[in-house]
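Practice record 12: protein with 2-phosphoglycolic acid.
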Amino acid sequence: MRRKLAAGNWKMNGTSAALSELTTLSDAHPDPGVDLLICPPATLLAAAAQTCASGRIRIGGQDCHEQTDGAHTGDISAAMLRDVGATAVILGHSERRAGHHETSEDVRAKARTAQAAGLMTVICLGESQLQREATNTLDIIGAQLSLSVPDSSTGENLVVAYEPIWAIGSGLTPTADQIGEVHDFMRTRLEKRFGAGVGRSVRLLYGGSVKPDNAEEIFAISNVDGALVGGASLKASDFDPIIRALEGA
Ligand code: PGA
């Protein structure tokens, strides 16, 4: 059985004042029925890990470099994430693919390094609006999945997040059928590549405008094992009902 996962991506939001949201969330979920992960900006990682040290919320980074160390000004290594108490990292978010020109090959290289360092990798993929209209979404997702996911992946160190680019931050979400189609497809592809054991144990998250009022419907879709949540993860009062919807799913 896959344990469900509610993951929050704070993106470039939050200074130390935002740590109180983590305290609230941690206190509200001393024994959650699902896994919880918050990925704050790099500047808050150490403090966030400390804030959550006695609770059940895992802390993750939002990116790491493919090299283990070296002359890469401004970048963060997987070992540095581990060192400050992070146990996971988001890789290949569409905002990094677009804003930092990251290819699926780059994402795979980063994921290989992160997994070798003992981090759980949350690898993101998803089609643009244009791609959904002009081509077969499953072709896009299939290519991104096979190129972005490294061979070193297991049910413990890999989570895949399907995030249609047009649904991120837009208030738009795909229909339940559209989400189900992509998630079932990703499951089949993972089973083919890694075998049934690993393929069935990888958690598949949906991301893109998940809110308290649509969470229940999204979590009822087959092969949706949780969510990667942006805007609605910033406030404990928004993320909390999403966690409870997942616990009840
Ligand atoms: P959103 O972002 O929930 O604000 O749409 C999701 C994401 O980008 O991970």
